[in-house]
Hints:
single chain; mainly alpha; globular
Amino acid sequence: MRTVLKSFATYLLLVGIPLAALALILHAGGGLLAPAAAAAGAGPVATHGAPAMRLGLLLVQIAAVVIAARGVGLLFRRIGQPQVVGEMAAGILLGPSFLGWIAPALSARLFPPDSLGFLNSVSQVGLLVFMFLVGLELNPRLLRGRGPTAVVTSHASIVVPFVLGALLSLRLYPRFSDRGVGFTGFALFMGAAMSVTAFPVLARILAERGLMRTRVGTVTLACAAVDDVTAWCILAVVVAIVGARGGGLPPWVTVAGAAAFAAAMVLVVRRGLALLERRFERDGRVTQDVLGAILLVALASAWATETLGVHALFGAFLAGAVMPKGKAFVYALNGKLEDVTVVLLLPLFFAFTGLRTRIGLVEGAEMWGWCAVLVLVAVAGKLGGSAVAARLTGMSWREAGAIGTLMNTRGLMELVILNIGLDIGVISPAVFAMMVLMALATTFMTSPLLELVYPARLIRHAHADDEEPH
């Protein structure tokens, strides 16, 4: 009883009070005015070019992107970083912030503006498959048996950075937003962007460090799974609000439609998908017919959410989340799709993100100061909120620090959300550039900080403790 009361008090402190503060922030920001035009070119960067694009140029672009991504990724892995961090950095290097700066003629020939629309379309297909795989990896069983620690920590790791992001919006909105975007949409988006955790990157870090079967690993995975689902639900609301301002459906219609569709996927489609798992068990492999049916479900789900006014990526994620979670089935399906997606298609998304990221927009002491503030607030909210919650629910400071450090990994998921924000015009190119730098900084610091907080010797002890008979 005492443990339950302590967990409830911690939950009220780290979740209830910040949510009340969020309501006050949104009310206070209602009267703020954004600049007449966003700094240095407002609105989303154009992504649709002329259709007359030679296939040869696309093949050269893909080859250049894959070479850069694999090369920089392997280099980063040599210095103890996840390969995906290097691939993210490679995308920035191929953009105007590096290649366009040191070799503008080469950059213009390799990535002419009228080719970017098609490159973006190809990268979006890869991103749809990747989001499907992210949903596929989410397993409700992660949440079983984790107790108060997982519940309180997961909610605190969302609410605390979310509220801090919304609070920071009170200062960012008047400086960097566009009057076409309301404060509520901007603040909710910044909160969602601050609170996301890169579940796929996190899972790979846990596996590489041997943390999967420790208490730190299981609690962190459970929290990250909740974070991903929550962040995408919040993002769906933000897209609905911004879309309504642009002449789309009213937000409540979009949100209600998305909720009804999600319920149908969980209650109806999920049962039908169980037939595919039984077919897999009978055949002993994922046949082409089964794979084709699964991809059709993912594409149909993506189309439905895009039509509803949310985003196609939400539908792909939802399709993966409702897939059967049998270990052999998930492993086999993942094996069919992951390699081509990660090696060939995802680097195209990193490159496209890099081509949209103009670090030159972050100029002057004031903007670099705001960039530093974004990083500090992101770390304080995510790492601090997660660590304090874990500590107050009974974990040691070492374990709590490790959980906070891991939850602070934003990586690819942050870039996905930021690109959506730029596409719908809720953030300006300048804010986009600052947030991309924040995503790189917080992801890059994960491995060295984790080694400092929770070194390998403690991981060995954790395994020994878990293997002791109880």
